Amino acid sequence: MINFLIAGLLLLLSNQPALAGSDDTVTFQGIVNSADGMPGYLIINERKVLLDKRVEVRDHKEKEKSISDIKDGKWIYVVSKETLSGPNAIRIYLLPGNVKHGEKHKYPFMHKEEDDE
To answer: Is the CB of residue 116 less than 8 Å from the CB of residue 22?
Structure first.
């Protein structure tokens, strides 16, 4: 119960749109403020996001990429699990820019990730 309350509070304070599912996954997009902490973490939308040891990185066409392809100032879509230490990214998609709600149909992985939640 306490984990649920902490996760909810973190989402409210994160100042970024996010969708949470019953399996504790959260999806959001944002700008990489700093990749200096890789491979341990990234700063996205001024928030520290841990990187799972098995994090999958793909481009917006779902082609496999490397964690080294994540650069400062780039837009990414993150699928993460909420932990006591904060969000732990399990999948990252490199985006060409900010994807508005009405443009999500161009990116099937967004519907898949959000429907799985």
So the answer is: no
**Cα 42 from chain centroid (whole Å):** 10
C-alpha–C-alpha distance, residues 35 and 70, integer Å: 7
Radius of gyration over every alpha carbon of the chain, rounded to an integer in angstroms: 13
Which residue would you say has higher pLDDT here, 21 or 113?
113
Residue 26 near residue 19 (C-beta atoms within 8 A): yes
- The values of phi and psi at residue 112, to 5°, are -60, -50
Q: What span, in angstroms and rounded, lies between the C-alpha atoms of 33 and 49?
A: 11
Question: Is the pLDDT confidence value at 23 over 50?
Answer: yes
User: What pLDDT, on a 0 to 100 scale, did the predictor assign at position 111?
Assistant: 86
What six digits make up the tokens of 91? Answer: 């999948």
Mean local confidence (pLDDT), 37-43: 94
